[in-house]
Backbone:
């Protein structure tokens, strides 16, 4: 029977990184993955250039039932720590926007770096290996795999969340957590496009491809001032992906269509300066034509209605609608396109310093399977690195 000090289940971002750091500590390490290729999500991330961290990482950029849980790990392994690692391996990066760092080389270079660190320190990566059963055997764990049984002192679960099942995502971590007495916060698709109701699909049928600079907000959650995009099926774009993580079924999403501007003052001034201007023409100064032609309908106005025809009350309503335009999505596109999974292994059963189970000494959960979900923009990888580093100190 083979025995290792630390067995990492899942060779994705968190698992490979954790395995490498454990091996560098002198632990005998094996990382198992059921896929033929490791870390496929790194490969497809950031349009192939892996948005591997965010310089503006702060605990407020993460959702969890316990907003304090991520603080310790994030403070001890920072974006600059990962940048140093990249630099040691000769990798370079650039900031795109909002603190988002992308690798200048292809994302495969980040995977190669993680594998190199693991294997150079004596760790082993076993691919194409499925896990049949995990049980406690005294102080150790015994894991039955398609390559035979293996025992370990520390078992680190890094099998990720449910998004994109076609590249190997499974709910394995949740089942294992429940087997060992952990609560699982119901997983839900996050950073995911939203879908229209039938009524909205008809109303917005010619709007696909239109992009607006907005501030979007779910009923519970912060505002995100980024672009939104109309698609054939619904809404997408960074602001919509961000609010999708905070959205719950049958809630509305509110859009400030003129962020940072006083809409009522703008309309009043335009009415005074150019009273013969049609409302759609006024709107076209701020929005793409197709949206400018559509929006008057929201107020029961014709697009040819002239500003001069608007009463003070209508101007107030018009301004209010531009600052607080609400839509109720039918749902989300689901696991097929979700970038991450919100919810997961409940943090109150885990040590925030080490990610170790409070119920089962030697059992750790790291990365996306934990109920910690980052905003769009490199935060999810930063959580993968930070939680992996925390576990690797003690596992
Ligand atoms: C399209 C896309 C783009 C993304 N872009 C970014 C980005 O640019 N920046 C960012 O921060 N985040 C991004 N993310 C999110 C990021 O990829 C994840 O948050 C991150 O990979 C989570 O790391 P993890 O190690 O916890 O899980 P994963 O990286 O998903 O790794 C889990 C591993 O476990 C394996 N596994 C699963 N189930 C089993 C099982 N039953 N048995 C054995 N092995 C199993 C899987 O094959 C996989 O290799 C993106 C996600 C997607 C889908």
Residues:
């Amino acid at each position: 029977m083979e025995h290792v000090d630390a067995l990492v289940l899942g060779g994705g971002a968190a698992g490979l990184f954790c395995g490498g750091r454990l091996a560098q500590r002198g632990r005998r390490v094996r990382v198992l993955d059921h896929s033929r290729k490791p870390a496929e999500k790194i490969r497809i991330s950031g349009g192939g250039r892996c948005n591997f961290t965010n310089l503006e990482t702060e605990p407020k950029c993460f959702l969890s039932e316990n907003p304090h849980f991520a603080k310790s790990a994030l403070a001890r392994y920072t974006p600059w720590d990962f940048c140093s690692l990249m630099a040691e391996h000769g990798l370079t990066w650039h900031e795109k926007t909002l603190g988002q760092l992308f690798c200048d080389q292809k994302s495969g270079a980040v995977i190669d770096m993680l594998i190199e660190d693991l294997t150079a320190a004596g760790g082993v990566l076993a691919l194409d290996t499925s896990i049949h059963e995990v049980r406690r055997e005294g102080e150790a764990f015994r894991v039955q795999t398609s390559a035979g049984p293996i025992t370990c002192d520390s078992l680190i679960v890094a099998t990720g969340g449910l998004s994109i099942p076609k590249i190997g995502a499974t709910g394995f971590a949740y089942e294992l957590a429940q087997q060992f007495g952990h609560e699982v916060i119901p997983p839900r698709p996050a950073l995911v496009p939203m879908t229209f109701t039938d009524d909205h699909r008809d109303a917005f049928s010619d709007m696909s491809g239109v992009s607006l600079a907005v501030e979007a907000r779910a009923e519970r959650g912060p505002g995100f001032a980024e672009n939104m995009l109309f698609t054939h099926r619904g809404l997408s774009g960074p602001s919509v992906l961000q609010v999708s993580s905070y959205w719950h079924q049958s809630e509305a999403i509110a859009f400030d269509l003129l962020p940072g501007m006083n809409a009522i003052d703008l309309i009043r001034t335009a009415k005074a300066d150019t009273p013969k201007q049609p409302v759609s023409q006024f709107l076209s100064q701020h929005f793409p034509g197709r949206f400018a032609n559509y929006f008057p309908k929201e107020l029961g106005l014709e697009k040819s209605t002239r500003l001069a025809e608007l009463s003070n009350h209508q101007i107030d309503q018009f301004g209010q609608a531009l600052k607080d335009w609400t839509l109720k999505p039918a749902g989300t596109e689901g696991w097929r396109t979700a970038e991450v999974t919100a919810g997961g292994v409940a943090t109150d059963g885990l040590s925030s310093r080490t990610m170790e189970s409070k119920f089962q000494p030697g059992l750790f959960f790291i990365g996306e399977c934990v109920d910690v979900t980052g905003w769009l923009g490199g935060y999810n990888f930063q959580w993968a690195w930070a939680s992996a580093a925390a576990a690797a100190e003690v596992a």
Notes: The chain has a mean pLDDT of 97. The first strand starts at residue 2 and ends at 9. The pocket of flavin-adenine dinucleotide is lined by residues 9-15, 33-35, 38-39, 41, 44-46, 50-51, 130-131, 158-160, 163-164, 168-170, 172, 339-340, 367-368, 378-381, 384 (CB under 6 Å). Residues 54 and 100 are 5 Å apart (CA to CA).
